[in-house]
Specification:
The complex is a heterotrimer of chains A (334), B (165) and C (121). Chain A is α+β, with helices and mostly antiparallel strands and 334 residues long. The radius of gyration of chain A is 25 Å and the shape is elongated. In chain A, 16% of the residues lie in helices and 30% in strands. Chain A has 2 domains: 2-150 and 322-333, no CATH class; 153-320, no CATH class. Chain B is 40% helix and 24% strand. Chain B has helices at residues 7-29, 34-38, 40-57, 68-74, 78-90, and strands at residues 100-110, 113-120, 133-141, 154-164. In chain B, helix 3 crosses helix 5. A 4-stranded antiparallel beta sheet of chain B has the order 2-1-4-3. Chain B is of the alpha+beta class and 165 residues long. Chain C has 2 domains: 9-45; 48-120. Chain C contains 3 helices and 5 strands; from the N terminus they run H-H-H-E-E-E-E-E. The chains are: A alpha+beta (334), B alpha+beta (165), C alpha+beta (121). Chains in contact: A-B, A-C, B-C. Chains B and C meet through helix 2, helix 3, strand 1, strand 3 and strand 4 of B and helix 1, helix 2 and helix 3 of C.
Chain lengths: 334, 165, 121
């Protein structure tokens, strides 16, 4: 037994080379099969109603709350990555070296790393995303094949003009509502890969060709504000979520663009061609799985410059979802 | 009269001689110890890659799209299956192609007998290759697939052997 | 008679100590070679992809209205080709949060790893 051990002594201490492959494999699993996790500091002060203190949507929170960086859409969808998480992971302005080491690679030794993801677009071009140092001669390695899911857009263009134009004679209020019925969206008969889950991916409502919704002689209409109403199954009366409309403490939960310029939720600005509202997943912390969210665009002015009205349902038929894109992820550790 | 004054020297000489012979033997017979630890690492990398590729081929790109893997097995398109599988496997992020080869077979059940249908035959790199890994995926076929599968709704197992040439 | 030569005892003692230290180091280096072997063997041995694939096959089976022949296929081929004993059962539809779902219970055992799950689909 002693004889077999001594040659090991003469061969030199290079066992750490084997360790690199194991760490690369583990990092690959964390990136590809884990949705990630963030957790609020337990002594933090809560705001608003039923504030969520942890969850898998780490791309929305501050860096110091992130425990683990994972790119998967959810636990149930391994190898399907969410494009918003991918963008955040590879953005050099958000993470630095220590963050990658403590939130993706783990381990006591400060490993050097190189992550690269090559996404193939349907038109034959490739998107290469990379972060880390250039690769040396010997390194630990793993390669994973994945598909990338991009969030969908509910686009309301001029083809809906007839459906969403009406007149209310008695008032100047013009309300256009986009309805998200969570019990319909989270229907388990749809596979989790193709499901629209506003708690995981952003909700994007874009009204284009707004000129077609204007009354004949007017050039633009003013969007007074955007309000949010919640209905639960137990209580069908809509409850207005007032703290969101006026409270500017949460600017990162949404973006609102009128003709390309960004505004807050009470713009009172004229718009003549497009309105785009994106609600990020951390906006949905107070919505339960059977609730309904109504997003109301109020165009209230005297005289009324638009006759837009109606309810547009945000569901699998009205939302254009891009196809999944195949991609290759390579992790190198040394 | 025996003089035992040199006993210690003799013993020391023998011990020294033994140590020198032992050292020479060990130096000559030193081999790399990595052979035991290394063999399974490439296997692990290949197996994970192969499982990923089969899983991605089994995922349609949209909710109404067709399932690529099921279609290829159902219509017995072995050339297309080989091409698609290798396309996924050999893709790397810097654009160069890896050198992986595969062969496949489909296992199905006929009454109480389990049979194997060779789907993709191995190519000329089959001999003199590194060790191969086996990855599998369940596929559910609807009624009416061509021979040799049975004409009923059934579950078959696609087995792919993957190796580096 | 000449007295025993007691010099050099220190050197001999140190030599023994060094030999013991070398022995210990050799042991460490020898064990470190197994690190790579054990990690990759553990990964290869754990049937992560097999279990995920089996769950997906069972969910397809439920989508196909629980065809008896498909169940026999899965059980027989798992035993023959995957060396795993598999059994699963699907109950009638129940109401879960407003949606109709079937309770499913899955058992998998490949001799080294056993996996049991009850879920809804």
């Amino acid at each position: 037994m002693v004889v077999s051990m001594v040659p090991g002594l003469l061969a030199g201490l290079e066992s750490s080379g084997i360790d690199y492959d194991a760490v690369a494999y583990r990092t690959g699993v964390i990136l590809v099969e884990d949705p990630g996790w963030w957790a609020e500091d337990p002594n933090g002060q809560g705001e608003g109603q039923e504030r969520l203190r942890d969850g898998p949507s780490w791309e929305m929170v501050d860096k110091d709350k992130i425990k683990r960086v994972g790119l998967a859409v959810s636990r149930e969808t391994p190898n399907i990555l969410l494009s918003t998480k991918v963008e955040k992971f590879f953005s050099t302005s958000f993470f630095d070296e220590d963050d990658y080491r403590s939130k993706a690679i783990f381990g006591d030794i400060p490993y050097s790393y190189n992550f690269s993801l090559n996404i193939s677009n349907p038109d034959g071009t490739y998107d290469l995303k990379q972060t880390g140092s250039p690769i040396p001669l010997g390194y630990g390695y793993i390669r994973r094949v994945v598909k990338i899911k991009e969030p969908g857009v509910a686009e309301i263009n001029e083809s809906f003009k007839d459906r969403y134009t009406g007149v209310e004679w008695n008032s100047t209020a013009r309300n256009f509502t986009v309805r998200l019925d969570f019990s319909h969206l989270l229907d388990p008969t749809i596979k989790p890969i193709y499901r629209i889950n506003p708690r995981i991916e952003p909700v994007n409502v874009t009204i284009t060709d707004f000129r077609d919704y204007l009354n004949d002689s007017y050039e633009d209409a003013a969007l007074k504000n955007v309000t949010f109403w919640k209905t639960t199954k137990e209580d069908p009366r809509p409850v207005r979520l007032s703290w969101l409309s006026y409270n500017e403490k949460k600017p990162d939960t949404y973006t609102l663009h009128l003709d390309g310029d960004s505004h807050n939720l009470t713009p009172n600005e004229p718009v003549n061609s497009s309105i785009s509202l994106v609600l990020r997943p951390n906006f949905m912390t107070f919505m339960g799985p059977t609730d309904t969210l109504d997003i109301q665009f109020n165009f209230d002015e005297n005289p009324p410059k638009t006759n837009i009205t109606g309810i547009h349902h945000y569901n699998n038929t009205s939302v254009t979802r891009p196809d999944l894109k195949t991609a290759v992820l390579e992790v190198a550790i040394w | 009269m025996v003089n035992d004054a040199g006993q210690l020297y003799t013993m020391e000489g023998i011990a020294a001689g033994l140590i020198m012979i032992l050292t020479a033997y060990i130096v000559v017979s030193t081999t790399s110890i990595y052979t035991t630890g290394d063999t399974h690492i490439p296997d692990m990398q290949l197996e994970q890659l192969g499982s990923d590729v089969l899983a991605m081929m089994d995922t349609p790109d949209n909710s109404s799209g067709e399932n690529q893997l099921v279609g290829l097995v159902y219509h017995n398109r072995s050339d297309n299956f080989k091409k698609e599988f290798l396309r996924y496997c050999n893709a790397t992020t810097d654009g160069t192609l890896d050198n992986l080869h595969m062969s496949a077979s489909v296992t199905y059940r006929k009454n109480s007998v389990i049979k194997e249908h060779p789907f993709v035959a191995p190519d000329e790199t089959w001999t003199g290759r590194e060790s191969a890994v086996r990855v599998t995926r369940w596929v559910q076929l609807t009624e009416g697939p061509p021979n040799p599968y049975e004409n009923r709704l059934q579950a078959v197992l696609v087995e792919v052997l993957l190796w580096r040439a | 008679m000449a007295r025993l030569n007691e010099e050099g005892q220190w050197i001999v003692l140190m030599g023994l100590l060094v030999a013991v230290a070398l022995f210990f180091l050799a042991l460490i280096v020898n064990q470190s070679a197994l690190v790579g072997q054990t990690t990759s063997e553990a990964v290869l041995e754990f049937p992560k992809n097999d279990i995920r694939d089996l769950r997906s096959a069972i969910f397809d089976y439920i989508d196909a209205e629980c065809n008896e022949e498909v169940e026999q296929d899965i059980i027989a081929i798992s035993l023959e080709r995957k060396n795993a004993v598999v059994s699963f059962s699907v109950g009638g539809p129940q109401d879960v949060q407003g949606h109709k779902m079937h309770p499913v219970s899955i058992h998998y055992n490949n001799g080294v790893t056993a996996y049991n799950e009850t879920t809804h689909y």
